[in-house]
Design brief:
Layout (H helix, E strand, L loop, with lengths): L1 H9 L2 E3 L8 E5 L20 E7 L8 H4 L8 E9 L3 E9 L17 E7 L20 E7 L12 H14 L6 E6 L5 E3 L8 E7 L2 E9 L1 E2 L2 E2 L4 E9 L10 E3 L3 E5 L6 H7 L1 E3 L3 H11 L23 H4 L2 H9 L20 E3 L5 E3 L9 H11 L8
Parallel strand pairs: 2-4, 2-16
Antiparallel strand pairs: 1-17, 3-4, 3-15, 4-5, 5-11, 6-7, 6-14, 7-8, 8-9, 10-11, 12-13, 14-15, 14-16, 18-19
Helix pairs in contact: 5-8, 7-8
């Protein structure tokens, strides 16, 4: 880890607390938090951390018009709290949503509101975290996903017991279970749902006065994920069912460090996630136009074919400085999900080598001098939607 820090200092990446995302401090409590919902009194003792969620820009279809990011879609503010009891972790997410959209039943095509939290399975090297959405090959993420369902989303319960009495038990008996699922994902076409007893998680959603509150409670240590190291990263995703035509628009945070208060853990992980790029933004923009604009669309540069490469319009909001640097110097390390060879065969994002590994068609820019890479990263970090 110390080597990683030294590399970033060498490249001019420094810790800028004023512009970095704050860490989340999980407060330790005496009670059991394995099943608490948004209305639990336990949350009164915890403090919110503000988080910014940016529109996730990705090509899903060959349809040129619908694949371009909508400039009217702004970044969103959310708030998060965290509690743990020594064995279990619980997170509370709160975000504004003017329209309540509910999935009517288990098989409905109705677009619903929802949220997800994702954790990297391996996070000892912060410079090599998974791709921020869906993970990446050999860098898997555990995704906890929850859609708003018909039975619980229009009622604000006065207590958790009332929730269990009026909703949870009847729904279980009728086999109309909540749409809360757990996935192990290594990127596009490498997603596996965890259905066995190792996925012991509880997720709730409650809507009131234009605000959603969602909770996730899970063990700190399970067969597929170990969060007992004292510090770990998390990313938050929300989606608005009202903005799901033709594609669901997700708002996503960057990796944010979580600290289990009172536990020993790597502060280097927390500090490295806050690293920002200090460089010449104007020179970085010039370099981006000269070296990147032929394949990538971003900001006011939209001359590249829309399906040729990932759109970078909001990359600065959800990508860490470490991820951007790796993408510039070693593009095959993470091949971004979104490319479909059946519909985008004219512009392959990758080729397969003899061993079946994905080799990015983007050339490496490791030939650039350190200052140029620093300037490029600094410019790309400015590419993000305006906050609502």
């Amino acid at each position: 880890m110390k080597t990683v820090i030294k590399i970033f200092i060498l490249f001019g990446l420094v810790l800028v607390a004023a512009s970095a995302q704050d860490q989340i401090n999980a407060m330790k409590v005496l009670g059991n938090v394995s099943k608490i919902g948004p209305l639990s009194r336990a949350w009164l003792s915890a403090k919110y951390t503000d988080v910014i969620l940016y529109p996730h820009t990705i090509i899903k279809k060959i349809n040129h018009e619908s694949s371009m990011p909508d400039k009217n879609v702004k970044a969103k503010k959310a708030r998060i709290k965290a509690l743990y009891d020594g064995e279990n972790l619980s997170l509370l997410i709160e975000w504004k949503d003017d329209t309540q959209n509910i999935q009517e039943n288990c098989c409905s095509k109705t677009h619903a509101d929802g949220f997800a939290l994702q954790f990297p399975v391996v996070y000892d090297d912060v410079a090599k975290l998974p791709y921020i959405n869906m993970g990446s090959k050999n860098r898997s993420v555990i995704v906890h996903l929850r859609n708003a369902t018909e039975k619980n989303s229009d009622v604000f319960f006065e207590s958790l017991q009332e929730y269990f009495d009026t909703y949870y038990k009847p729904v279980q008996d009728s086999a109309k279970t909540d749409y809360g699922r757990v996935f192990n994902s290594e990127g596009y076409r490498f997603v596996k749902e965890i259905k066995d007893d190792s996925a012991l998680v509880v997720m709730y959603m409650i809507y009131k006065d234009g605000t959603w509150k969602g909770t996730l409670s899970r063990p700190l240590k399970a067969e597929y994920l170990d969060l007992t190291n004292g510090t770990f990263p998390v990313s938050i995703v929300t989606w608005d069912g009202n903005l799901s035509n033709p594609e669901r628009i997700e708002h996503i945070s960057s990796w944010i460090g979580v600290k289990l208060s009172g536990e020993s853990g790597s502060d280097e992980l927390l500090d490295t996630l806050k690293i920002q790029a200090e460089g010449d933004i104007d020179n970085g923009k010039t370099l981006a136009m000269e070296n990147c604009a032929a394949c990538h669309n971003f900001a006011n540069s939209v001359t590249a074919p829309v399906s040729m490469a990932p759109n970078l319009s909001n990359i600065g909001g959800y990508a860490t400085a470490q991820y951007l640097m790796e993408s510039i110097t070693d593009p095959s390390a993470v091949v971004t999900p979104g490319y479909n060879p059946n519909t985008q065969s004219n512009f392959p994002w990758y080729n397969l080598d003899e061993a079946g590994n994905h080799i990015s068609t983007m050339p490496s820019y490791d030939w650039m001098d350190e200052k140029s890479i620093e300037d490029l990263v600094a410019y790309f970090k400015t590419l993000k939607a305006e906050i609502e």
